[in-house]
Amino acid sequence: MPKFYYIARNRSGIKETGTEEGVSQEDVVNKIQSKGLVLVNIIPEILGSAGSINNGTIKKVKLKPKHGRVTGEDLMLFCRQLSTLIGAGVTILKSLDIISNQVASRKLYSVIIELNKNMEAGLSFHEAMAAHPKIFSDLWVNLVESGEASGNLAVVLSRLATYLEKNAEFKRKIISALIYPGILTFAGVGALFFMAIKIIPTFAEIFKGFNITLPLLTQILVTISDFLRKSFIVLVLVFAGLFFMFKKYVKTKAGRKNVESFKFKLPVFGDFFLALIIEKFSSEMSTLLESGVPILYSLEIAERSVDNLVMAEVIRKIKEDVREGKSFRESLERSNFFEPMFIQMVSIGEEIGELPQMFKKVNVFYQEQCETFLTRFVAMFEPFVLVFIGSLIGIMVVGMFLPIFKISNIGA
């Protein structure tokens, strides 16, 4: 029967921890509540069979990591597990030791081992994290530093885990919304290429034996088909070369900035890309400010982690204005980047002293705006692609049957 590790409080508000067996998590919850305890958290013992707790001792069962990279899901789970264990009163070193035995990533396993060694050598947790910038971003390091300084590391890690979970969920929604249009487009283009390369040439060979002048539409289709068949490899190489040159150009600072600026100016989609980047900015700012990071430091972290050169430059100018004593609202207005609604919401939060909460509300608004756009886009994209691809296929079919009609009339 599986065991579960739980954190609860009795009627006096005193925290109690322990393990409880049950056929399911719901069964264990009922058993704990029947004791008159208020459940705070419950997890499979040692977060999924990494070990067991008995009388305060830990029996470790090392699990074999499944992959070599460090995914967002790995970091999200690591953060949530760490916040849960530290919140339960387990020391950081012991928490890292427990988690290291059940991570799915070989890379993350080695990083956790190094974190443990560096902390045993005298480094603080955030200093040990800072030695691995490819794994732990500035957001991680500075939030952990804030948690260590305030003595609320478990709370800060819980907020960071919530941020990572919401961000991952938002990304999944975007990807899920774009999968169907992508499949539909790929299938439609594939069908067009198949007809152009296989079907039309077959009909063209048949028509040659009848010694007739092909209708104009049929001639155009046959010419296009011949061009695609003879130049297919050349076209693939040309497109591959253009794609390679574009990727190389985007890797330069000027090229990346120009492409990002172009995306924001696109009709219809420009507002969507803008909403995406503001959503990420507001989410990071709410998490940082809520964790006690000063606004200037929060802006500096956001500037480094926003992953958009245009937005990073805007944040840098706002940071400089705030450092010079200007109000946050004035700085936002001077940037000419944010919508009036965003500026108004943030200025209200600044005036009433609830800036983190206001950033959180702004984040929810932009998430909903992006989701609404994607829902409408998919709803409109499907019939448009079906009509467009269907029209092209219809034109091809008509073009192939026109000579047949002409041959029939001759025979009649």
Describe the 3D structure.
This protein has 412 residues and is mostly helical. Among the domains are: 1-44; 171-412, Type II secretion system (T2SS), domain F (Receptor-associated Protein, Up-down Bundle), CATH 1.20.81.30. It is built from 16 helices and 5 strands. The chain has a 3-stranded antiparallel beta sheet. Strands 4-5 form a two-stranded antiparallel sheet. Helix 3 (72-87) runs antiparallel to helix 8 (153-208), helix 9 (216-251) runs antiparallel to helix 16 (355-411) and helix 11 crosses helix 12 (295-305). The protein starts with a strand and ends with a helix. Mean pLDDT is 81; it is low at 46-62.
What structural keywords apply?
Receptor-associated Protein, three-stranded antiparallel sheet, single chain, 7% strand, elongated
Largest sheet: 3 strands, antiparallel
Order of helices and strands: EEHEHEEHHHHHHHHHHHHHH
CATH class of the domain at 171-412: Mainly Alpha
The computed structural class is mainly alpha
Number of helices: 16
CATH superfamily of the domain at 171-412: Type II secretion system (T2SS), domain F
Instruction: Report the CATH architecture of the domain at 171-412.
Output: Up-down Bundle
Number of strands: 5
**Average residue-wise pLDDT:** 81
Task: Tell me what portion of residues adopts beta-strand conformation.
Answer: 5-15%
Oligomer: single chain
